[in-house]
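Record 1 of the preview.
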Amino acid sequence: EESEESEEDALAAATRRRAEAEVAVVAAAEEEEAAIAEQEALEAAVTAARERRAAAAAVARAAEARLEAETQAEGELRQRCLANDRHVAAASCGRPVAFGGLRG
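->
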């Protein structure tokens, strides 16, 4: 009789351990799925960040090109204004610029 009880106790303990192992397997599988989902979300975030960085770099290059073009246009306008000012100053003295109109 004692031997039957110890076998039943052993069987009950084995059944409990198996149930605990099943719970552990399910928990580990859920944790793995959560980790996979987190990894996929992080990879998507990295991809989005790379795309934003590339777009920002393109905007920066366009802005730099525009600044360079505007600077060049400003310089050309400034040169034309200076040339026009010399022409006006020479004309007010009655002499063309080519003949020293700025010297008075």
